[in-house]
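Troubleshooting: if your tokenizer reports a length mismatch, compare your output against this known-good record of 385 residues.
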Amino acid sequence: AMITAMCAKQWYQRRVRGFCGGLSPSPWISEHELVLISYERVTSDLIKLDIRTGHHTHVLPVQYKDCCVSVLDQMGSKLLISVSGLNPRLSDRTNQGVAYVDISTDSPVLEMWTEDDDSPENYCQYTVETFTRAGREYNGVLIKPGPGSPNNNSLIVYPHGGPHSMFTTSFRADTYVLSQLGYSNLLVNYTGSLGLGPDNVHLLPGHVGDVDVKDVHHAAQLVAKREGFKKIGVWGGSHGGFLTAHLIGQYPDFYQAAVMRNPVVDISAMVGVTDIPDWCYVEAGLQYNPYRPPIPTADDLKKMLEVSPITYLDQVTCPVLMMIGEKDLRVPPSQGLRYVRYLQSRGVPCLLKVYPEDCHPLSTVACAADGLVHIHLWFKKHLGV
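Known-good structure output:
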């Protein structure tokens, strides 16, 4: 049954311009129907697929098309789901909470449980943005402060990690808080992100440090010019940190402040000590053999270094806040520590925050809260807001 479900997932990806992110916990709802999790543009949705006919339908009612959904539990056709949006409410409709839905019917109805929020003036304003560069389309989300929040006319560019993941319109505490503090946030789904189909995903390996960097900068330039932003910062973690380091190195006159969280800065130095050496090979465009020790050749190391942001280190001038999880096995702390040490030797303003008990995501409650405070203070200081 699981093999059949995986084949159905691959079939769906070939037929629909989206990316099937996986299967629900118990995907089969009948002998011939199953539930898939689909990423399309900037949303995540549930798809009911009939493997006999290929007919597929969206589970969420159409009025929730701008929301994102994930499955919490499932029993046959009865699902307990989490529904999320960048704002808790749109007009008179709650779009954030836990819901029950029976998808055995053609027109399922959601029963939503949520807390009321009567402060719409605090909600952020967002638009889904579409960009085109080098004949390829990609997208993002621009989140601006609401009418009841301050507006400091600054833009924070935020490329996601992965790189094969995506930003959606689901609620995010970090960007929501930053928008309440007056920052506009541009979340960019560059080439290689999910949401535009598997072909788009496969375009990036072998071109990291180039295609993804140019996509993010192109989007930032367009939005900054259109909206009149003069104060521009950038931040990201993991591959998002990789892109942040590239952006401030390749375009040093555009970004005035940067924050990096456990960033990849030198793939050639990371490959021998990370828990994902395959990532280093694949994203650099090299062949990875899982049946032999990951010992790179001199040519492999040369290519890994060439695509790494550390090669642009001498061009970096903007202040950098570096956040490191000391227990990170994915991107070893030596990556960020080395980057900061080199910048400090050149007199570039840096602040190093090390979290001894945290690892790659920096996601413990204490770390996430402390990190968000320091991100705000860093941008406030160096963007002059």
